Amino acid sequence: MQSLQQKASEWSGVPTEDAFSIDDTNLFQKLGLDTFINLSTNFYNRVYDDEEEWFRSIFANSEKENAIQNQYEFFIQRMGGPPLFSQRREKACKEMGDAELDGDHVKPENSFYSNPVIFKRLSLEKLWHPALIGRHRPFPVTHQAAARWLHHMQQALDSTPDIDDDSKTKMMNFFRHTAYFLVAGDELKNQNQQIPCKHAAKRDDS
Ligand code: HEM
What we know:
Elements (H helix, E strand, L loop, with lengths): L3 H9 L3 H4 L7 H5 L1 H16 L4 H4 L7 H15 L5 H13 L19 H9 L3 H9 L6 H17 L5 H26 L7 H8 L1
The structure holds protoporphyrin IX containing FE.
The site of protoporphyrin IX containing FE has 21 residues, from helix 6, helix 9, helix 10 and helix 11.
């Protein structure tokens, strides 16, 4: 059976090593905070104004300003900047108090975003990809949705000032691969299977 990474590579046309070439350079240092904020603002302006109602409706329960902040904090942290994304969730952890994890396994019904303690553990271990699947569980992340998301992101990258071509290529490869990784995760959900635990994720990487 194909792993999620293999499916992501096949469907996106991006080999895994190209997807993670975002780690070759510190893109946060290169581009700076404002560029990331501008990129996510640009992206979500397009999403919330999308003429395609089916796509716009996926975001109907999210406030645009929150969605923008969630996205740029994630990108900044993932691309070499300060851990803004984790810090905000760690704060939520403290507010909720500590809870016990179920071993090392994350059950789908206990998705990490609905449990900030699990999120914290996963984020510290840098298991971004499986964790993102958990966050996208409520949404229909289909092939069609991935293509539309990527269309808006390509346009946002092209029209945000100060993003050089090399950074754009690296980021777009990461986005393409991740988008189809999420589609593969969505298909698992539909087959009523479990989100991979960290051991499965390690196997995926091999
Ligand atoms: C959040 C949909 C791809 C990263 C969301 C949200 C929706 C969504 C509806 C909730 C908005 C919010 O409240 O923040 C989709 C769809 C995708 C897609 C349909 C198509 C494939 C991606 C990709 C990435 C990504 C490729 C990363 C490269 C995130 C992050 C959040 C988010 C970091 C915020 C999570 C949080 O704050 O809890 N997405 N997404 N998404 N998405 Fe996606």
